[in-house]
Amino acid sequence: MALQAILFDVDGTLAETEEVHRRSFNAAFRAAGLDWHWSRDRYRELLAVTGGKERIGRFLAGLADPPCCDVPALHRAKTERYTALVAAGAVALRPGIARLLAEARARGVRLAIATTTTPVNVAALLAAALGPEGPALFEVMVAGDAVPRKKPSPDVYEAVLEAMGLDPAGCIAIEDSRNGVLSARRAGLPVLATPGLYTGDDDLRHAVAVLSDLGEPDAPYRHLGGAGSGEGWVTVEALGRWVEDGARRSSQL
Fold this sequence. Notes:
Blueprint: E1 5-8, H1 18-31, H2 40-46, H3 52-61, H4 71-87, H5 97-106, E2 110-114, H6 119-130, E3 140-142, H7 155-164, E4 171-175, H8 178-186, E5 191-193, E6 209-211, E7 223-226, H9 236-248
Helix pairs in contact: 1-4, 3-4, 4-6
């Protein structure tokens, strides 16, 4: 089956955003008068939970004497700081992303986003990195609390596939984390994994390929596992081959 669509995660996949998220959480904590500080190690632990509000909740649950805290308001304050940093140019697309998006559009491959981050975060990143027309490149975006369960549940990917009227066998997801890979696989999708700053140690064995990034002709990716050995940069043609390979790996998680 020919490749019909590419479904992208956002944080850590389209761009290396997690450090900016961490800084924004800490700034929101300080502004609220909270003496919390999430180190990189603590934030890496909290990333096992998908969703910003959920991470704050997990952090609170681990405190011996948690304060009374308006989690949604605290998360909104964090989001305001994050989107301001993104608009100021704090985040760039990962290698190969812009190239693959342009190639996919030129070849009629449909594009979508499936993420647990909030819609305003997605819009800010796409506009800053791709210009005002950035969000329009993607036919469907399912983000934030649009589904009842977040990754590693398949809900977000199932919602995207339903909205596009697509069979997962003709699509591929691009993810960076274990939770993301599991979410996509549970929706029946083959997955390309490109681990980032906080997910380099994740178990990505269920991805059809694991690469350092999407690569460029003058800056090839590092092959970390699965398909893609010796190729150097991800193309629509390569993804089509990997979709066919993923169809053969029919075991469900």
